[in-house]
Structure formats: structure tokens, C-alpha cells
Amino acid sequence: MTKRIITAALTGSIHTPSMSPYLPITPEQLISEAVAVYKAGAAVAHVHVRDPETGMPNADQDIYRRIATEIKRQCDLVLCFTTGGKLGEPVENRVRVASNLQPELTTLNAGSLNFALFHIVDGVKEWKYDWEKPYLEGTDDFIFPNTFKTMRQYVETMYANGAKPEFEIYDTGMVNNLAFLINSGIVRKPVYLQFVLGILGGIPATLQNLVFLLDTAKKQIDDFEFSVCAAGRNQFPLCTASLLLGGHARVGLEDNLYLEKDVLAKSSAEQVEKIIRIAKEFGIEPATPGEARTILNLKGIDKVNY
Q1: Which of 158, 159, 246, 284 shows the smallest number of beta carbons within 10 Å?
Q2: Which helix (H) or strand (E) holds 175?
Q3: Are 77 and 139 in contact (CB under 8 A)?
């Protein structure tokens, strides 16, 4: 297969407005970003939402619907909605987007971890909003909860609404968690894995660790598609490695604010264009949204509820 799915993660819940003036916050900015990454060659946009006044991550269902409806009106991009939400969001709120919008693709975090961001506070010289510093510092004593019970409930909700789970794998034990859910008959194969490397609390972002994760998944799960995202400066090296290993790639301002050293990316679309340039050097072409739907066996944009 020479076609690979390029995903753009538009805003996330890690970076704050003080870190980059280009981080999209409002619904209008997120819609514009989604259309821009589509035009740049991405097949999928990974969607979080934020308070349009302060930029604080939230799980506002009205904003999700507004964004999704307008993006669909303008293009046929596959939308992958987060069920992680902002850090500390009640677990019951996080999965509502799956039943409300009945999307094609939603994330499912495959285990709990110490999701730590407190160490990046010292890199910010000036804060734009009062919530940002306490939000990040609070992760010094924070566990991102994804228990077997909630994973099972999330899977059931997603399947009931025709959404395919994208399993976020932050560490090796999460491959084991997913294998258990498959062997228990809760999760159906083939599965789609997103290897997430470089979060403090998860597996470090190295080529050796990516190869180890992939090898572990092949032994325990066998039937899957995979993609890779990596935090910060490791984004492009590990996304390139994923493409060469037969996988897909996720870029975007959620994972990395820079285009190259000391150069802020003005848009996730710039990162999409860069990873596609790299891919084409190796004879790899970006999949269209339609081709991504075929690769991942998605239900189709005509069956969503937005």
C-alpha cells in the first residue's frame, strides 16, 4: 500500500493560547483550520473544542455540532472526535459526542496514565489567561482515568452509534489492555491504533520504542492499522518512521507547535504539507478522505448525525 492517511490534530487540550498566537480557539478558527488541512492533503481532522472566549479546552456539544456541520458543508474530510476532552473532564461527558453526532471515528484512550504537563510551565514567559498556568500545574497530581469499565462503556456507545474507535496507545501496557478487550469479545478486529509517544507519563518518543510498540501489537493483536503521533520536536522524525514502517501519520498543533526549530507553525496545514512532501520523497501518496474511509472501513459521511 502506497497510500497513507494523514491526520491533522487541530488544537487538542495540551497547548494553551500563551504558547502560540496560531493555536485555533474559536469555532470559526477551527472550521478554517479543518478546511485548510483538507486542502493541504489531510484525510482526517482530529477535533477538540475550546471556550471561544478564553481558549480553555471543554466538551461543549453545541460547539462540536456547529464545527462538524460547517466542515461537512465545505468538504468531505473524515472527522475524528476526541473522547479525552480537557484534562479533568468527567468521564461521562467525554463520550457524549459519540452518541450526539454519531461520527465516523472517535478516539478511545486505551488505559490510564499520569498525563503530566506541569514541566512545560517554565517555558512560558507571559500568560494570556488566568486559567492556563493552574491548568498545567495541576497535572503534577493528575491521573488521566480510562478504566476497563469506562473503556467497555465507551466501546459499547461507539458501536451503538456506528463510530469506529481509534485506540490511543500511550504505553506498552495499553496494547495489552486492548488485546484483553479483543479476546473478551468487547472490541472487534480489525482495530485502528494511534501510537502516542512523548507524553510525560507515557512511553518516550524514540524510534526504538515505536518499533517495540509495533512489534508488541503485531504479536498480541495482529489485525490492525496504525498511525503515529509524537510530541514536540519528535513529531516529524517519528511520523516519517511510521510511514516507512507501513503506517499512517498524525501531525498538527495539538502535538507540536513548530514547523522546524524555532519556527512556529502558522497552521496545522503547514505541517500537513511538510509530512506529505517527506512522504512523496519515498513514493508514498496521501490518501483522500474517501480512500481513508475504505482503509479504515468507516461507515461513510452520509451516515453521521451532523
Answers
A1: 246
A2: helix 172-183
A3: no
Secondary structure, 3-state, 247-269: CEEEECCCCCCEEECCEECCCHH
Q: Report pLDDT digits (tens) over 68-102.
A: 999 999 999 999 999 987 777 788 889 999 999 99
Cell digits of residue 209: 520504542
Enumerate residues 6+ apart whose C-beta is below 8 A from 237: 207, 230
**pTM of the full predicted structure?**
0.97
> d(Cα 256, Cα 230) in Å, to the nearest integer?
8
In the chain, where the domains are located: 3-112+144-303
- pLDDT tens-place string over residues 237-259: 999 999 999 999 999 999 999 99
Please give the Cα distance from 133 to 206 (Å, whole number): 29
- The dotted CATH code for 3-112+144-303 is 3.20.20.70
With beta carbons less than 8 A apart as the criterion, state whether 76 and 289 touch: yes
